[in-house]
Automatic annotation (TrEMBL):
The lineage of its organism: Eukaryota, Fungi, Dikarya, Ascomycota, Saccharomycotina. Its cofactor is Mn(2+). This is DHHA2 domain-containing protein. The keyword rRNA processing does not apply. InterPro entries: DDH_dom, DHH_sf, DHHA2, DHHA2_dom_sf.
Length: 394
């Protein structure tokens, strides 16, 4: 009988223990990275993708061997603790924070690698290299994602960019098929990926696509089979698992305004008609504005802190996207801050699509607050709407 394969924590410990000469293969260092929001989906996708690649390379003949893939979490290490749902899942899976690789670890790996080492990257949960890593990544070699397809890196292999509630479903199904349902591996990755799928689909109630259904069915089979294993304890009941994760994700008490803004944050540079680009940051927030004002010394102070964040990051425009559920009903707000003229122009163009209804702010001060009655539109939709709007602004 073949020896038991490494578990995910064992794989990560192993990666950390290796000198750079063993981590890189020849003059190529390979990473797998999710998007800069570094939510559970991105983190679970990157870690399990790298893990499965490792298992797969081991089981194949040497010609298929292409070194190791290092999962990178695209935030500074200190920001992980802002993601209480992620911390909860990692603890449940016995994955220690010190075994993970963050931006600063990537920088240090690059430094240690011999001159001329190329950095290849698999992308999960995004289909173009994250902006802050573009200068590091030489080649995008594979993509699995559920965002709008930017039609870049067309020769990547795999190149799976499909509609799916969660990218984790696509990652799971890809490896499930490639590893031909290998029970042991599937059991190792199922809890992690299922956690992300449940969060992204609100416990399979919203934004559920066939890929999610298939992945969860397969995950559940694996978890039930492994019910005696430590890794699957307490995970058979998906509703309980979901509630535990969700209550932690929604718990942002004690965070500073800047922590709240950077917890689930993405930044873009929109290109316009021959003008300078628009630097725009979008924070997704799990509490409504009135709650945020209450926790942070009132509206004036909260807005002041937001403007400070905006200046620190050199943003032309900052957008807050709040969302919460009450009595089974979804609610969203959109707050936009920046140059008054630009704010007005952008709002004018997206107002209908997002069904915006102003409840606060002052256009003349460059701050406008809206209820977003199109509650289906998450950041995934809001970003392309705003980008299109900017391209039309004169
Ligand atoms: Mn995602």
């Amino acid at each position: 009988m073949s020896p038991l394969k490494k578990t995910i924590p064992e794989f990560l410990t192993y990666l950390k223990s290796l000198p750079i000469s063993k981590t890189a293969s020849g003059d190529i260092l390979t990473i797998c990275v999710g998007n800069e929001s570094a939510d559970l989906d991105s983190i679970a996708s990157a870690i399990t993708y790298s893990y499965c690649q490792y298992i797969y390379n081991q089981s194949c003949n040497s010609e298929e061997k292409c070194g190791l893939t290092i999962p990178i979490i695209d935030i500074p290490r200190e920001d992980l603790s802002l993601r209480r749902d992620v911390m909860y899942v990692l603890e449940k899976l016995s994955i220690k924070e010190e075994e993970l690789f963050f931006i600063e670890d990537l920088v240090s790996l690059k430094k240690q690698a011999p001159n001329g080492t190329k950095l290849n990257s698999y992308l999960v949960d995004n289909n173009d290299a994250p902006k802050n890593l573009k200068n590091y990544i030489d080649n995008v070699v594979g993509i699995i994602d559920h965002h709008f397809d930017l039609q870049k890196h067309l020769d990547a292999e795999p190149r799976v960019v499909n509609v799916s509630g969660s990218c984790s479903s696509l990652v799971f199904n890809y490896w499930y098929e490639k590893l031909q349902g290998d029970h042991e591996v599937v059991m190792n990755i199922a809890p992690f990926l299922m956690g992300a799928i449940l969060i992204d689909t609100s416990n399979m109630q919203r934004k559920v696509e066939p890929s999610d259904k298939l992945a969860v069915k397969r995950c559940q089979e694996a978890i039930n089979r492994a019910a005696d294993e430590v890794s699957a304890q307490g995970l058979q009941d998906t509703s309980v698992f979901y509630k535990e994760m969700k209550s932690r994700k929604n718990d942002i008490r004690g965070f500073s305004v800047s922590d709240i803004l950077k917890k689930d944050y993405k930044q873009f540079n929109f290109q316009g008609k021959g003008r300078e680009g628009l630097e725009i940051g979008l924070s997704s927030i799990v509490k409504r504005m009135s709650w945020l004002f209450g926790e942070h010394d009132g509206e004036t102070e909260f807005v002041k802190q937001c403007k400070r964040f905006q200046n620190e990051r050199g943003l032309d425009v900052l957008v807050l996207l709040t969302s919460w559920r009450k009595a089974g009903v979804s609610h969203r707000e959109l707050v936009i801050m920046g140059d008054p003229k630009m704010v007005r122009a952008l709002v004018e163009k997206v107002s209908d699509k997002l069904a915006l209804q102003q409840f606060g702010g002052d256009f003349d001060q460059g701050v406008a607050m809206f209820r977003q009655l199109n509650v289906e539109a998450t950041r995934k939709q809001v970003v392309p709407y705003l980008e299109e709007a900017y391209s039309e602004v004169n």
